[in-house]
## 1
Amino acid sequence: MKRICVLMGGTSNERDVSITSGENVAKALASLGRKYEVLPVRLDADNLDALPAGVDACYIALHGGWGENGGVQAALDARGIPYTGPGAAASHICMDKIATKKALAAAGVPVAAWSVATSATTPAPPCGYPCVVKAPRDGSSVGVYLVKNEADFAHAVAEARRIDREKFGGDGEALVEEYISGREATVGIVGRNALPAVEISAPGGWYGFDAKYNSDETRYTFPDDPFVPEMQRIALAAFDAAECRGVARVDFRVAPDGRMCVLELNTSPGMTGHSLVPKAAAKAGMDFAALCDAILQAATHD
């Protein structure tokens, strides 16, 4: 692979973050000297019309929407162009939080209690309040609400369903999930290697969009706790349950009693200054350019 296209931008709510990720990846790959001819490409539509001819492989730095739901993966499969990250089917599962819950539960991977709110029914939270309400097919904490009482529950469900309906059609659904107090952590997978776990301590205890991308107060540490090897094992089990390959990030909550639950998988992890997979890779002794290179070297297509 010599002529490499870095795909970024796209049409999702995460466009700006994707552009930052893509520019960082393009600079990192270009820093490897003559190993690659790097072609940064910003997509403005859900198609590959902007893709240059003669591309040997694509690094997918798209986040959310068509870039992460299997759309761009299927388009690249049709052209026979290798790309980074999981294939179309796995990407589709992981972008849909409801489908992810089903796949993980079927494989025995621990998940928080959950239910689905549709146009026909708005069930009470499975474990009372507080609970978490999520738009099930968006990313970067868009359409995610921490609900502390019954008065706010119907509004959060309506908003999550509205986001889902406007972006993906149908009547709209909302994922209603048990809120697990305690610690938040994530494990990156590169190849089939689990990176060091990263613990996240966000202002106010809520790791939302601002805490992820705008806050300098969010702290990231590397716990040296007995639960870490088990968390890495569970992360690989989740990676396999969703039939992922290449790279993914597996997000967890850890309850005070040590119970660990997988929240979701991200198949196109961020590559910004705040992103967690680069931080974990650095802890493991892999600099940013080496990480991008390793992810690219695993590129393939279906």
Note: The chain has a mean pLDDT of 92.
## 2
Amino acid sequence: MTHLLQHMALAAFFSGVLTVFLTPLVKRLAFRAGVVREPRERDEHRKPIPLWGGLSMFAAFLVTVLVMRLFTGDDFGVGQRGNHPILGILLGGTFVAIVGMLDDKYDLPPKLQALSLLIGGLIAALLGARIEGITNPFVPIAPSGKFGSENFLPLGVYSVPITMLWVFLVAKTFDFLDGLDGLAAGVCAISATTLGLMAAMMGETAVALMAAALVGACVGFLRHNYNPASIIMGTIGAQFLGFVLASLAVVGALKMPVTISVLIPLLVLGVPVFDGLFVIGRRLYLRKAPQQADRSHIHHRLRRRLTVKQTVWTIYTLTASLCVIALVLAWKFGR
């Protein structure tokens, strides 16, 4: 495990440095392409700011994963029985990123955004990054501590659509969370660190290294995105980060042979997921369109009483607290 942790640190460092140096290039590219966010009523910034910041994170993540695969000698475990979950995540994430770039440029209809996330989830699921089943909490584990087939509920034909819905949910709620400077990138870094450590405990090399690369990309981006931000990640960043986190949870935390395996990713991704579900539920209750923007998200509510930085750090702390609980549960029951 020490060897793997060293490679995770290397992946995070390389990805972070790459993001720091790529982001200024992306800023100039966004200005030249006219991909600039004009101030809106619900925004904190009061001057035009370039989008496409997520492009630097996407590029740094992809390059880091490929470099680590080629030069570290680590086994990236492409799966069994023809499954290639890591390839599925990379291809699905690339598709989501491309559509996100187009949305930042052309402001695509919400239905088309949603369809892109579902297609990205389909690509990942068909290549093996799917929820094949869940643990059965009503069947006790044998006294020996071994996890048998009776403790597992296979999803069968529902595996792919459930995976698609999970990916859509996490990616879209992460998009909702991207409302304050540094918020989505910081929350993603904390969540990805947690998923990476869990994967390291389970010996899942590929998941651990991909999570570390994502952490580095987010931290490197904060160099330019922390308040006051000079660039924002845009749809490409928020939905790509959410997609990768959801996919890593599928091939990592959700495969833990414990009865609480479903709970663990919900804790790790609890802030964006529960915030998103609350906001959508509230809009439906008020008979508003689910995609209609408002100021009811957790960061908007906290912002009424706190500064931007205080709000961001409050949500960082909440995310970290939930992730610590998830880590403790994973360490106690998942080994």
Note: The radius of gyration is 19 Å.
## 3
Amino acid sequence: MSDPVCLITGATSGIGTVTAREMANAGFRVVMACRDLTRAAELRKELRNLGNAGTIDILECDLASLASVRKAADTYLADWQRLDVLINNAGIMPRGFQRSVDGFELTFATNHLGPFLLTNLVLPLIERSAPARIVNVASRAHRRGVLELEGVDGDGSRHNDMRSYSRSKLANVMFTLALARRLQSRGVTCNCLHPGVVATNIIPQGGWMGLAGNLLKPFMLSEERGAETSLYLALSDAVAGESGGYYDEHKVRREPSSTARDVGAQEHLWRKSAAWVGFQLEIPP
């Protein structure tokens, strides 16, 4: 399998669809890790009509289920011999407190714990494929995030939709910085980004957030524009050697929040996340 391979989560909608299409256009064999297999098959058909029939594969993966993530990683490692670019793109912001099948707050489980486990499980193959890249789609919302880890497996009594989303995006940035530190001199870069405020289906319907989203949608970025920074970090020679960066929608490297840069907090999050997902192989910081 000589073509470079890109594994991307959340490819069946929004900026993930655009990212998958453009990675295929760039010559990558794209593996879409998806929960919705019907939509994934429809998307592959759409891309086939654009001339990308042989470059798109589907991998079943529900990031909210640790068992599904483990099965997906096992399948990938058995069926593909390389992984040049991993794009952790999937993200949700559901309304109200919900639990994952494993008992964790659903937003944190899907946006952080699932990608954390998936990345660590396929990391040995990424390293063998070096030079390689890991791209994590975070958000400017991380700046409002507070690392309230007791709420991850709590009773939801203090739940707030936006606070939970911001916490998960803070975790994305902290995970990126901690992983980049571990991957120094290994030929693998790890960066994260804020794609901009994009008109996608992540905005909850109903309630004040849905109303605000509908009012602001004409002023939001298109999905095409929102995918640009992910593609920049995945493909551009300008950032081939850059790692541990947080980039905004203008493809400019910015300093993340002081909380995100706290190395002690990063390591605390790493240890807690590893314990929650049952990941035993600890990469030294």
Note: The longest strand covers residues 29-34.
